[in-house]
Design a protein that fits this description.
By secondary structure, this protein is mainly alpha-helical. It contains 11 helices and 2 strands; from the N terminus they run H-H-E-H-H-H-H-E-H-H-H-H-H.
Length: about 325
């Protein structure tokens, strides 16, 4: 195994651990703060669960399909589709979050009356249910690459998944198109909020409450936009390299490893963005760590008298 491959595997292991710990903390913080009653935070929790599964499922499988294991063609195909599945769940969760923000800003009264916790969990279920057929929809074209015999071979992602599928379906249709739609939605959101805040302020308390509401929406929308930008920056390099390779321009394997690592690192970066940009999650992080240190101090204080008693008895 080359030194670059060893470095790649070590980085993937560190990223996987970071994904699991960070996103588990996000889900715990949302649950303890009762934020899951709000639709937006239900969708954020869905994204965090998908990122958690990237760490404990997708990254180990991605390492395996890099030529580290020998399997049959159907087994290798299923492993690769599971990796694609978690990516599509993340994209659909981001789309749902953008649509939720759009409805909340453009139709605030109707949103509060109609959108409930039940509706938000239905949206989460739809994201996962739609991602499953999308990730396995091109299996019939992949089956054309199946060898005539049922012999086992080294499982490699690029041998099983056609590059045409990665470029036209996975990138253009399932990644680039949603990114463009989300960018348009966020532009409309900030344009609407900016226009409303620039209106001549009145003296009524109702108007003041409306301005406070819009400022909070702008702050949360800006935080979620950072999550979207991070997703684009981490995933576009790999998709661009797939496009280059598809049009018969060779790309070195080391560059692909960098692109794959960046795509996985996105799932580890999201919890950091939540902690830095979203007040509710940051506040709950502080409470969790405060309780942890308080419990540690109390346990040390309870152990100190026992040590003093044992010392006196020995003396």
């Amino acid at each position: 195994m080359a030194a670059s491959e060893v470095v790649y595997m070590v980085l993937e292991i560190v990223t996987a651990v970071s994904c699991c710990l960070g996103n588990a903390s996000v889900v715990l913080a949302l649950w303890l703060s009762n934020s899951l009653k709000q639709p937006t935070f239900c969708l954020i929790a869905s994204l965090a669960v998908a990122d958690f599964l990237v760490g404990c499922v997708a990254i180990p499988l991605a390492v395996l399909v890099d030529g580290q294991v020998t399997t049959s063609f159907p087994t290798c195909l299923v492993i690769c589709c599971v990796v694609i599945l978690l990516t599509l769940v993340s994209v659909l969760s981001l789309v749902a979050i953008a649509v939720d923000r759009y409805l909340r800003v453009f139709f605030p009264l109707r949103y509060k009356l109609t959108v409930t916790k039940k509706h938000s969990w239905i949206a989460v279920a739809v994201c996962w249910m739609v991602a499953v057929p999308l990730s396995f929809t091109a299996m019939h074209s992949m089956e054309s690459r199946r060898p005539s015999s049922n012999t086992t071979d080294v499982c490699r992602f690029i041998r099983v998944i056609p590059m045409s599928y990665l470029v036209y379906f996975n990138f253009f249709l399932c990644t680039l198109t949603p990114l463009i739609v989300m960018a348009i939605l966020y532009i409309c959101i900030f344009w609407r909020i900016r226009g409303s805040l620039q209106k001549k302020p009145g003296s009524s308390s109702r108007h003041d409450n409306s301005r406070d509401y819009l400022k909070k929406e702008r702050e949360l929308a800006g935080s979620l936009l950072v999550v979207l930008v991070a997703f684009a920056l981490c995933w576009l390099p790999l998709h661009i390299m797939n496009c280059i390779a598809y049009y018969r321009t060779p790309v070195h394997q080391s560059f692909f490893h960098v692109g794959i690592f960046l795509s996985h690192a996105n799932s580890a970066v999201n919890p950091v963005i939540y902690a830095l940009k979203i007040k509710k999650i940051r506040r709950q992080y502080h409470q969790i760590w405060r309780k942890k240190f308080t419990c540690a101090e109390q346990s040390q204080e309870s152990q100190t008298p026992e040590r003093n008693i044992s010392t006196n008895m020995n003396s």
